Amino acid sequence: EGKQSAHDEL
Amino acid sequence: MNVFRLLGDLAHLASIFILVHKMHITRSCRGISFKTQALYVLVFLTRYLDLFWAWISWYNFLMKIFFISSSCYILYLVHYRFRPTYDPSLDTFKVEYLVGPCFVLALIFNYHFDFSEILWTFSIYLEAVAIFPQLFMMQRTGEAETITTHYLAALGVYRALYIPNWIYRYYTEGTVDPIAIVAGIVQTGLYLDFFYVYVTKVLQGQKFELPA
């Protein structure tokens, strides 16, 4: 995956 | 989702409603920086374009649609509907100085060198500094309408609340997002002067005035 957490934030 | 992020998002929603309300009741966009509002459109378009390829939740999806459409609507209000009340001679911050460096920073400091990541990173950096033209304008006029200060307070509180959200996520999920965190701290820091005057003057019932 490699995506950081804030990618699911606004 | 946690309470900090939810309250942050609600503050963000509130800031937009306050701004639109201000323009409608005063029938003017006086004191509002068109440049800052245009930067927010750019921020939302570059960050939320992922709604076409990344599904997160209905909450996330609907909020993205709302932020893109409301920022475009605000730009319409400032640029067309209430244009006669806009004074470009007060809104003189050079946005090139923000957009250029943010783009270069996004090319250098990102998680993956691909199109969607660079857009996301650029939007995070640009959001952090997008308030500059607005603050610069207030610095020039030395004052602001009370309702404009409520707008700015809600907008500042939004990102400030994301900071405890990131701390909470670190402890509950073990996740850390250095780009968002650093930019979010810078963004909140830019509001500190404003918050000081807001709390010591506006919340005490006085007019927002900067010392000469």
TrEMBL record, chain B:
Q: Where does the sequence pass through the membrane?
A: 62-82, 94-112, 118-137, 149-167, 179-199
As for membrane topology, the entry says:
Multi-pass membrane protein
Name of this chain's protein: ER lumen protein-retaining receptor
Any one GO CC term of this protein is: endoplasmic reticulum membrane
Coiled coil regions, renumbered to chain: none
> Quick one: where is this thing mainly located?
endoplasmic reticulum
Would you identify the family this protein belongs to, as annotated?
A: Belongs to the ERD2 family.
Pfam families of this UniProt entry? ER_lumen_recept
A GO term, aspect molecular function: ER retention sequence binding
UniProt-listed InterPro entries: ER_ret_rcpt
Name one process (GO BP) from the record: vesicle-mediated transport
Q: Which residues form the signal peptide?
A: none
Report whether ATP-binding shows up as a keyword of the record: no
- Name where it's found: Endoplasmic reticulum membrane
| Tagged with keyword Endoplasmic reticulum | yes
Keywords from the named record? Endoplasmic reticulum, ER-Golgi transport, Membrane, Protein transport, Receptor, Transmembrane, Transmembrane helix, Transport
